[in-house]
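fyi for ur records
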Amino acid sequence: MYWRDGTYVMEDYYALCTLGFDRRENKAVQIDPRVFDLVYATQAWYFGIERKRPLTLLTSVYRTSKTNRIVGGSPRSTHIEGKAADGDMEGVSPKVYAAMLLAFKAGGVGLYEKHCHWDVGRSPTFWRGGKVES
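which gave:
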C-alpha cells in the first residue's frame, strides 16, 4: 500500500517503481503515482461490480529511449517519462479494461489485441492498435 492516511508511504511507492523498471537496461525511475492510481482504481471498480479480486499484469512501465526504440514505441512515448504502463487485467477483456481506464479521463488509453496502454498527464485520448480515434 503506497498511500496511507493521506500521504505516500515512500518505501512502498519505491518498491512499485522498481517493479516497473526497464529490464533491458536495468534502470528504474520514479513512476508518476497516477499510473499506479489507475491500476488501483480499475481493480477497485471491477471488484465492486464483480466481487472478484482482479490482478493487473504490468508488461511495460518505464522504458529508456533505447528500449523504446527497440520495441517500436513512439519517439514521444510517455513510457520514457515514467507516465505510462501497458498491461491487462486477469479475467477482463482488453476492451472492457480500456473502457474502465477511459472512464477516469486521466490521459491516453490504447486498446490492443491482448493488452491496454494507459498514460497520465495529458488530454484524454483513445486509440486502437496505434490509430487515434475521436
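The mean pLDDT is 90. thats all i got for now
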